[in-house]
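User: quick one, fold this
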Amino acid sequence: MTDTSILSGLPGGIALLSTMLLSSALHAQEATERVLDEDGEPRTVEQRWSHVGLLRARDLTPFGLLRLDMLPAHTADAQAGTWTFEVQLAYQNTFIMSKNVRGYLEQRQIGRAPIRPQDAAAILALPGDAYYIDGEVGLVDLIVQRRIDEYWSAYLTIPYIHYGQGAFDSIIESFHDTFGFSQQGRDLVARNRFQLLYKLGDIRFAQLERNTKGGLGDPVLGIRYSLPEPRFGWDVVVEAAVKFAVDGERFLLSTGEHDVGIQATLQRRLGEAGRHAVYLAGSAVYYAGGPEIPADETQIIPTVIVGYSFGISRHTSLIMQGYASRSVIRQTDIDELADNKYQLSLGVQTRGRNVLWSFAITENISNFSNTPDVGVQLGAAYMPKAK
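Assistant:
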């Protein structure tokens, strides 16, 4: 079932399309794949175990949300001349702060009160850099792809960003209490808020009320090259993409700058009849900057994703993948904010002849003050006449 609390904040047309795609996955047909026979000739066979590629998860960390992030490519492609329609939904809860902000909140001694204007002024006056982010982000990527021939395809991604006020706060706090984990300062402020403020060098920003629920982000146009048969046992996909800032800088929706990225994705089947699969994806994005870094600072942001998939049936597989990426914040005296970001996702994927769908949970595993606490993602893709 889809989570209606997530879909309720999205445009009606996108939510309806998502529901239709997810429902159609229940009627997916048998899947096939291209392999090489003993003579090295390609042939089409019925797929015994389902492996469709890495989870197509986006980076939803607060600093870097609006930059170009290359989605790992599906290693299952539609036939030449067909269109693929895909919806990727993600929702995450973020509560992070620097140590000096936590120290300030602990000495307030006023209970679970939200950050007030006088608190924001005091935090921005603290020595050194400081940051506090409390809120939730929902993201819908609508992706349309055209398979040009057996090697080339092109795609357009249109993102919609939704900002929430803490639908997961009570669930996360109850989980922490049940298993004896620290609340990491959550018990020092009010629940169900959207508040963020930071001081990074000469940049100061404070937003204590949610004055935007979201809107359309910057579109991404990409081109993809994939080999129709494995090379040395590996499926290979290479792509390049551009994020266009079509309407200039927009608060919490666009950095106002164009980004460019490249990516390569590899998949290899292992074990009896290919029941296991391993993945490796690497990308590099030229990031032209955003409101949280100096306007004249540009950088290359590398990202690596590794994954393992286990076939449960001809249609379904379990997948676990790790994500590592460099932070967009480099010039700061807060080590954890500038450290690399590490996240782990665990999910399930199902593939039919025409439909792919996935569900996963993502959790941060290190440097807890620069990545979201927990997130969920749901994806569906319709591929007419897929191989």
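User: anything notable?
Assistant: The chain has one domain: 4-382.
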